[in-house]
Write a structure and sequence with these properties.
The complex is a heterodimer. Chain A is of the alpha+beta class. Helices cover 20% and strands 19% of the residues of chain A. Among the domains of chain A are: 102 residues, Ubiquitin-like (UB roll) (Roll); 111 residues, Alpha-Beta Plaits, CATH 3.30.70. In chain A, the strands form four sheets. A five-stranded mixed sheet of chain A has the order 2-1-5-3-4, with helices on both faces. A four-stranded antiparallel sheet of chain A has the order 12-11-10-13. A two-stranded antiparallel ribbon of chain A has the order 6-9. In chain B, the strands form three sheets. A five-stranded mixed sheet of chain B has the order 8-7-11-9-10. Chain B has 19 helices and eleven strands. The two termini of chain B are 34 Å apart.
Amino acid sequence: MRGLTTKKMKVTIDNIPVEVEDGTTILQAARKIGGKVVPPAMCYYSKLKGSGGKCRTCLVKVSQGSAKDPRPMPKLVASCSTPVQDGMVVQNLTSPEVVEARKGIVEFLLLNHPLDCPVCDQAGECDLQDLSFGYGMEETATEDDRREFPMTDIGENIKLHMNRCILCYRCVYAADQLTDKRLHGVLYRGDVSEIGTFIRNAVTNEFSGNMIDVCPVGALTDKTFRFKSRVWFLKPMNAHRECARCAGKTVAWMFGNEIYRVTGRKDQFGEVEEFICNECRFEKKDAGDWVIEGPRHISRQSVISANHYEEMTEPSVIDPIAGKMEKDE
Amino acid sequence: MGGKILLASIDIPGIREFGVYRASGGYAAVEQALRGMTPAQVGNEVTKSGLRGRGGAGFPTGLKWSFLDRKSDKPRYLVCNADESEPGTFKDRYLMHHLPHLLIEGLIISSYALGVKTCYIYIRGEFKYLVGILETAIREANKNGFLGERILGTDFSLNIYVHPGAGAYICGEETALLESLEGKRGNPRIKPPFPAFKGLYGCPTVVNNVETLATVAPIIRMGGEAYAKIGRGKSTGTKLISACGNINNPGVYEIEMGLPVEDFIYAPEYCGGIANDKYLKAVIPGGSSVPILPADLMLNTARGEKRLMTYESLADGEFATGTMLGSGGFIVFDEDACIVRNTWNLAHFYRHESCGQCSPCREGTGWMERVLYRIEHGAGKMSDIDLLVRVAKNIEGNTICPLGDAAAWPVASAIRHFRREFEYHVKHPEVVKNTSHGALNYEVESMIPDSGTGVNYW
């Protein structure tokens, strides 16, 4: 058995010990603990190879490199791309330095973000909204005009709203790894770099719709759902159908008996469990196309569960700061 | 002071040609290494010499070589980083232009030490005229049996290829360079894994600066220990310094490490003092990325000692009162220079050159540039100065590659040492709006193409 021979690494994150396998990243180890100790990730996507390291929101402090070499790492490290070592001690929320740096990163991410949440289809399920709620400042420190890109059309199903993009590269990796030929990418460099096709092209690949699901902000949205409804007015229902291209397991977002949109099923970290094809996503909007399994579990913190919060059976949130205080005394 | 090591033969007419270079003692080190030494011995000599990376970071070369994954059965690569784009640094261009064979010689010996069969010179796209010079040198070396299969009758074979970049400063960062060399967008890679394990095409790779690799040849010729005796402390040997700015004799100088900064600026054989009898105001001693220092801190450390041209002495006092040797781009400002304008100019450069991959650098460099533009053009506020400090702090250390640091340090240090000048700009918007800057009052030499190459590269 491989599981028996693999050496387990003991890691401590915010004073909570966890054992993980060799090669695990700090972020994955933190996700194993769950709760508040999980650093936010805007660009890392466990299902997309090569993603991560870019947004810098998951920076953590390594106060002890390993049991063998207890020196701390000189800089904050991106937890999504730093593998754990045996005996590593990581500080996330227990380090004021990390919180301070993360606030700075969120400020940078919001610097040129249009903050047009009231008209953005992503509102209510946007990672950047959650992040700004947690770490953002109430007022912006900049008085410059925000960066604006001319609107470009990338096909009939996907709406690209470049002003909202935080350049996480997730959609690039998704197109690389899910579709047979990537038609879009990052053009130009620095603060004028943008997502685009070269030369002007439509993104029409079979699985290109997954770009919408992996996008952490409202830069890529579903044209068939555009301005139809706010997500929190809809009921997400697990649904499936026989599909020749994908597993056909989706979430149908319903209002009464009408399906407003179809997305992939996302886990607790906001990552799609199984990618779905464009036919399921964009074309099957009739309730008769689907076998509706039942309502989906929604986190009680989510705005989508407004007014019908679930009963909490056991506390799932560990307060790392309280944990630290106990230990200090 | 001190004999020249790298540029010893620079004045010999026609030194760019193989025959002349060979007659003046060139390629003797290759013979010495390949015939009489094992690769490990060569590596040992380099370690003993205490040679440190000349590209900016000053990391010990011997140590860097020792990290190379020698257990892997994949091929190994040596990449020569000739993407010299740092504002103020032009030493590698000078070296490659005048002594291409010295670099080739260094590359052969280094490749031998590292067990490399294929070596790339990644050269800055703007140095297009150098590609021809280097390729001619490679062809000559090949013809004379110093490159190609079974060099000098030994089992060692080596091919060198020159690859021009496409004009991005970021490709001077080693992992971005490797991406670019592979034909991809020049985005720095997330480390780890380091190039020593997974570099070019996923194979173990060493990336070194031009000057570092060229220095390997004289190190073998004179022996590591003899080389280590030159210089001072852990800064051994000589260093090429490209001096520019408001000085009488701008140019590339080879200095022995440990030369006092004051001597370097005022001695007639080096910079020859400040042009037009002006006073020294500030110096950026290691290329635009390192912190700027005012004249008093540049000539003497905060502890009252004489500041020397070494890695340690320039870094004395950390960033509060010190700076870095960096890549040796020595930029001198006289009393008339406007620090705010220069800082804005640098911020503009870094904004333009940021690859846009990670958020602090992408957004932060643009933000700093906009605020500095405002201050310089008479529309700044007092709070903007503190804002700059905060933005620089938020970028520093939080980015994927050192470009973020390189953009943040000049801004942070300029405000640290010249805050009153920034405040003056805010308080007197009318004055700064109507002041013209630039080379208006200085005679500008016409740039004459070097007749030796026959190429008009200007």
